[in-house]
Prior knowledge:
globular
Amino acid sequence: MPSTPLEISLLWRHVNREMRGLLHRAGREFEMPPFSFMLLRHIKEEPGITLSELARRVGAAKSHTSTTIEQLVQEGYVEKRADPSDQRVLRLHATEAAMRMFARMGDRAQGVWAIVLEEFEGDTDEVARFLKALLTALERANARMERETTGVSSP
């Protein structure tokens, strides 16, 4: 009997929760609140973003975002630079310390995945094929949902 969408969603949620728990335990040394980490990740991915744009992107109040950015500046993870074309505009950049932290976190995450795959009793190539197929299905589902919500017909 095939699995139902509900069964799959519950399994997915459980797998996701277990993996987040493993990564959280592995990353305790970083001691960064999730909101701070999310802001820093956005700044790393979009160097030069403004505070206003960052607050909009993450859907948070500008005052809360500003307070958190000030903490990240004091901790040495974010640098504010004046925009060369408009000195009134401040642009946010991740510092070298932030980049080193992301590199360490990436190494730690790879270590966690290595442990998970060591404990896995199946074919890891099969897992990779499944995940690629799932990603493709998710991308197609996103495109389909976008078409359905915007009323745009598919080609």
